[in-house]
Amino acid sequence: MTEWSILWDAREIFFNGLIATLGLFSLSIICAFVLGCVLVYQLEDDSVLSKALRLLINLMRTLPFLILAYLLYYGLPQLGLRMSAWTAGLLALIVYHAAYFAEILRGCRLIMPEGYVEAAKAHGFTPLRLYLRIVLPQLVIKTRPLLGNQLIIALKDTAFLTIITLQELTAAANSVQSTYFIPTQAFVVVIVLYWLISICLELALKRAARFGAKRGFDYV
Amino acid sequence: MNGQAWLLLLEGAWTTLWISGTAIAIGVIFGLGIALVRMARIPFVDQLLVLYISLARATPLVTFVLFLFLSAPTFGINMNRNTAAIVAMTLNTAAFNAEIWRAAFLSFSREQKEAALACGMTSRVFFRRIMLPQMISSSLPGLVNEMSFLIKGSPAIAVIGIVDLTRVTNRISAVTYEPLPPILAAALLYMLIISILLKLQAMAEKKANRLAM
Amino acid sequence: MSEYTSPANVPAVSIKRMSKSFGDIEVLRDIDLVVNKGEVVSVLGSSGSGKSTMLRCINWLEEPDRGTIHIAGQRIGINEQAGRKMNNKELATLRAKTGMVFQGFNLWPHLSVIQNVMEAPIYVKGMPKEQARVIAIELLEKVGLADKHDAFPFTLSGGQKQRVAIARALAMSPEVILFDEPTSALDPERVGEVLTVMKNLSKEGYTMIVVTHEMEFARAVSDQVVFLEKGLIIEKAPPAKFFSNPETERVRKFLEISA
Description:
The complex is a heterotrimer. By secondary structure, chain B is mainly α.
């Protein structure tokens, strides 16, 4: 059982990695979600800006997350824009997942009956208030399963950042295994941690589903 | 970027494509097998498969590739990088594919089966001629979607030193000291590959919608 | 029409003392029914009376609890020589001798109209493709859909779908065709086209058992009318007698309401 006691000795490395992953994840998805909602609001009208944003969103859907992180971390310094692995990683997570959140919400917006919007307009809602009070809540409730999926994808994408030298959970496992030569145990620990986080996320989403179910929404 | 750099880039793209392609091909079949076994609801085996699917869906590909590549030798299994990458990607994508196939199974209408039995078809003929073709059509959009996810996840194999389309940009910029052009060029190639898959997905969706009477 | 013509004196379907329960609810009780070759039998009754279950027991889509069913003289469900239940293959062989037309059509959506008709002859009977095609073309003409060979089911109206389903059932040259409320899922203006096809079939001598709510059809086309109530056959008579002079109060009431 010596390998497992080594793991216990290395607990601080795992703990720091876990905190880094959780921090990256929560900060990035909150920002990405808000940014995604803003994007969808901007897409409500048909301006040049909207068209450009739509193009950008579609572009993100065809790119691997890591290539965006590469662009920010390795590419931009050539233009004199140098940032830490943390800043680059966080920024990449936000931009990338904001595009996916926006795409999910917009897909639902396109098939939403116009009646709700007209009813709100008839009551004198301003466009912003209409979006925040009437449109967005419905979109979020209806797309809950897809948004939940995206959260888990975002969690897993944080692991890519180990490749641009960010010290998160997977990097922690890698450093423990290279120091103590116990790859199996080290990785089993972090895989179980990832698994537990995603189970917690799923449970939280199930609770959130009750909110929608009480209002008679079906799952999409 | 010179011609040499483009050549390296294309080599990287080829590595990404053949490794992902192999994993996709095995993973689709593997996923169907898992879904079929799960439909049989064999005790213990079923729980084991549920656990596998749950774990595989929650584990980042980067972490899983590293785990397989580094820990296989401690079990006396010697895997080269490419094999480790293919095994990891296959096990990852098969879990998602199994769920896609299973959803198609579960949504299949009982009435169609009755119509087939009433004509005197055996269960085997029914599965082969009536059920499977429709399951392929209705699963295809999901399967193609999962293929593009797998390709978007494929840069994970760079972590064990495979020079794929992402990693190759490091190689090129190590020589040219200009990282931006190769990264943008790689991005362009990814866009191309995944746009084709998205297009295929849209076509598959159109075809699948014809089945919903 | 039928390929394996059995002796003319053997009834197409004969049911003896058939009973069936779902849990505690007895849906069929001691059903006795003989349907001779070329006969059309209409089965009437309010919903929940067990009509559909009776039909589905005939080709063993539901397994009856007691009683025997013979299709053209052959027992279905039980292999009498071996003294055990039939396996899937044996069941399939017998089911191939019955055709069924469902309320919800149940066409196979991935196959074109003509493929739907050809599928069972090819993959159940092992008929060569060309021969199956010739038969399918002929049958589609019979149901008035000669111009729809290559259409897919989702493009058809309900009435057209049901006519394809009838052609599909005919393609196996069945001893008997079971119709399970074939017009109940149709728009009112589409009912006529399906009933016309069924009338023509009866004139051609097909043996048919029809669960239906169409009184006019039952009166004009059937040789026998059977009335089910709570799983029991409470009246069995030629249509002339059934409609003009029913024996039971229940049937009289039923006819009054339906009129």
